[in-house]
Predict the 3D structure of the following.
Amino acid sequence: MNDYRPRVVDALLKRKLAGKGAVLIKGPKWCGKTTTAEQVAKSVLYMSDTGSRDQNIKLATIDPHLILDGPTPRLIDEWQVAPVLWDAVRFEVDHRKKHGQFILTGSVVMHEEEDSKQIQHTGTGRIARLVMRPMSLWESGDSNGQVSLSDLFKSPERIAGTCDLTLQDIAFITCRGGWPDTISMDHSVALDQAFDYVDAVAETDISEVDHVNRAPEQTRRLLRSYARNQGTQTSLTTLRDDMKANESGTFSEDTVGSYVKALNKIYVIEDMRAWNPNLRSKTAIRTSDNRYFIDPSIATAALGLGPTDLINDLNTFGLIFETLCVRDLRVFADALDGNVYHYRDKDKLECDAIVHLRNGSYGLIEIKLGGDSLIEDGVESLLTLAKKIDTTKMKNPSFLMVLTAVGKYAFRREDGVYVVPIGCLKD
């Protein structure tokens, strides 16, 4: 484990263990949940270990306390293969009356209402939850971290940073994604991994999540449609129509909804909620979620695109780059006790991302590939939205930022808007 690459979630995990009896780390497969948990665990049980899986499941059913016995924190990896362990962990936490007893990891969302026969209690107050995503550019070493999102909330008069990443670099990073195993691979090998991930999702994962047989080709069609509609408030009906228009075959809205729900449960997609600020005048705010993958490489693989394809189609590149930035902002926001939202109103005024902290502070962010014209468009949108916010009822924004793919420098403009290349940003 000496070659472990530190993650933003490391500090969060330790903090949660200090305040709760158990911590559940959830997120997509291959994102590094187990490796991260192993850094603090004093003992480990791999529920899906080859040759022991069936025995582990039987033991969990007969006497789960034997499985939970061991030095703490005790890591139970892929705990969801034996859902009865959830109540067993909750029981042990109640009776031991100590913090930091267990770490649970899994790649499937737990829905208590669907597992009521095996899970009797939610674990509220006893089991903390952490979402772990693929690596941000700061974690993968692609960002130099010269600009801190945390520091921007202090509204500095001056920031400074330089970035050497080219558009070609960003195109490769977007297609590679933030999967930990890819960081040290040769470029061609690294690019294969997202395609393998999509294959696994379509062929097995989407059906295994709830034991409902789903067609691999329909899954691929939906993933392609999702990729074409990233960053939009596209409805299930529109996704269905897009699938029918671009592929052969018929799809019902209920079928699309079932597939989308399954993809959510295995963390392939992670949509973004709308932000609802206090405004100076009445404006109808669009409240639908924006569609996003949890990692941009899923989109490029679903569409069969590589770095050169993105360079040759900047419109598509811009949409998928937005997914990369949203991933990173979500990683950083978690560390700051915040969430990431989007904004769109009836006048079509939009803001790509709003990082809103628990203390009420927030920052407005527009995402652009780069170039003076696109940056100016982003600045105009940010300033327009900032003027509409009723600051007698909520705080002024802590910062306005245009987050770019390329750009030599990170700096604060005379109008107060920050321009920051993604290759400079950290939590």
